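seq as requested:
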Amino acid sequence: MQRTLIVARITPGAEAEVARIFAASDRTGLPQVAGVSHRSLYSLGDLYVHLLETEHESTRVLADIRSQEEFGRVTAELAHFIQPYLPTWRSPRDAVARCFYTYEPDGSPARRVATGPARAEA
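struct tokens:
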């Protein structure tokens, strides 16, 4: 299982419309193509956070769905309400937050600990 956290800006008050767009898409075959097992959408003011859990890593998921007609439709509809968080945004990958610490309650050590600045991943 892969967790991906997507960060962007949302038009305040647009949460119901964004949820409607995803609900309609989630009733299609796109989640199965992408291997989506969970999706949660969050907002705080104009901050938008999208937690996505998939069977495969996010780079593979993006490669698998970018050519899907439904992905294009959802992307176009969301563009009215969701904008990039970073002004340097060039692709959806630029909206994926970097995990720098993970805690697992079973007593195992953290899987990821990073101390340096975030690195751009291609």
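The chain has a mean pLDDT of 86.
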